[in-house]
Sequence to fold (274 residues):
Amino acid sequence: MRESDLRKIELDGWQGEIVSSYDQPLLRQVLSQLPQLTRSPEASVLREGRNRLVCLNLPLGQNDFVEVVVKEFRPRGLVKLRSLLTGSKARRSFYGSLYLKENLIKAPEPVAYLENRSPWQNQAEYFLATRIKDSQEIRFYFQNYSPEQIDLLLLKLAAFCREMHCRGVFHRDLSDGNILVRELETGNYEFFLLDTNRVRLKRRIGRLRRLKNLIRLGLPPSRQRFFLEAYFEEEKISILDWLWYRSLKLLFSLWIKIKKTLRLRALAGRLRIQ
Fold:
């Protein structure tokens, strides 16, 4: 997207950008009230937690509305310091979605973001994107589909991941919670990437790095090799490829268990380092 397709936003305590096609006076007015709106009865809460998600119906015109998901970030501690160098998570989410759109990888369409004007301000930051209707996280299909349906889904998922990597798009948390799936009437599937602040563009993504990037997907154990073979198409999966993938996947599973046991995320929150 060209720079001319974006508009600057300056509000009390916040700054940001909005995609020009959504830049309407009514929407700008609503953005100035976003902290109150996200806590109002009009907000449908999708997820509570460190990064809160709510759904809102926002006005574009007199009888024109857009349904958006608002992701609320509350950076603090080390994350706050890191944002001085890398930009806010809200900004990175916005530009990550734009990068995906430019590279023909589907994601919720970015609308706007708001970040603190000063890095020393201690208030929430926001990323707004359109809501993907009639979709589910991919784990829903892994848990509820028949083996035959899962195989078809995995073939389509493998093609999606392969295209993403071939285009130089690297998602640092390519996990079940960050892939939305919409089943089409034709029996095909659409995939959408979430958590776009973790998207990076690479000139080239090597084979071992690709394999490592796929370990967070919660594939049924019996279908992991099937998925990798579909991902690499006619290229054979060597013993080293398989050992690399399985070793990293086991280490990742172990790390998740350790985090849950020690409750590291809650501890980081109490120490204000996350």
